[in-house]
Amino acid sequence: MTELVLIAEDDAEIAGILEAYFTREGFRTVHARDGQIALDLHRALKPDIVLADITMPRLDGWELLAEIQRRDRTPVIMITALDEDGDRLQGLRIGADDYIVKPFNPIEVVARAKAVLRRAGLGQTSAVIRVATLTIDLDSYQVKIERDGAMTTLSLTLTEFRLLAHLARTPTRVFTRSELVDACLPGSDALDRTIDSHLSKLRKKLEQAGGEGLLASIRGVGYRLAVDA
In the chain, which stretches have pLDDT less than 50? Predict the structure, then answer.
């Protein structure tokens, strides 16, 4: 089961950005707009990690952290606009696993969450996806394809890598173009034809490496990996 991230953040825009980036990296997410809702969701869903803003309604981040620590040992990353050493020390003293200051790079937040999960022994069981002749390493952003017993490394753009990894996570599913835009190009103004262009280039690279037929387009629907290729 993919790890569940509880995002406790009263700013809907920030929460949406975090949800998009975590989802793109294969996590499940749930959002709480205040500390009390976050506590209730923690009790009901038992998330694998919590991202908690400090200044939230009803229960603030410190109270949420203390309650979570009283219940179990769910990893918690504090996210705040307060860049004070005292706040940082307080969070770590109470039991926070990391402390991130706004404004932040969401890619860094995801990377630090992965590091916390690994330290807690809760990281994704495998950062490698293997499907058909493909091996996709999510940590090193490397893709290799096997042909005649030899492995060839593909040179992909970041967008091509994200598209391929997203398709590979559910290789039997057909994804629409709009779903691929939302998952792999969040917050962009990309159009369907942009996805077509990226996937056309990706298909050529796969074919050149011996992966003919791996990427299938389903007329009128979208794209999937041809796992029986």
Answer: 1, 125, 229
Q: How many residues comprise the chain?
A: 229
Fold classified for 4-119: Rossmann fold (3.40.50)
Same topology between domain 4-119 and domain 128-225? no
Q: Which residues contact 176 (CB under 8 A, 6 or more apart)?
A: 221, 222
Q: Please report where in the chains the tokens 């796992």 appear, as a residue.
A: 227
The CATH number for 128-225, chosen from 3.40.50.300, 1.10.10.10, 1.10.1200.10, 3.30.460.40, is: 1.10.10.10
Q: What residues does 154 pair with on adjacent strands?
A: 143
**Which helix H or strand E contains 206, and what residues bound it?**
helix 192-208
**What's the predicted TM-score (pTM) here?**
0.56
Put residue 51 in one of left, alpha, beta given phi > 0 → left and psi -120 to 50 → alpha. beta
Question: CA 64 to CA 71: how far, in whole Å?
Answer: 11
| Residue ranges of domains in the chain | 4-119, 128-225
pLDDT at 6: 96
Interhelix angle 61-71/85-94, rounded to 10 degrees, is: 20
pLDDT, tens digit (0-9, with 9 covering 90-100), for 116-155 = 888 777 555 457 788 888 898 887 888 999 888 889 999 9
Q: Helices 192-208 and 158-169, interaxial angle, to 10°?
A: 90
Give me 211's structure tokens: 């992966």
Dist CA 25 CA 4 (whole Å): 12
Q: How far apart are CA 103 and CA 86, in angstroms?
A: 19
What does the block give as tokens for 43?
């009790």
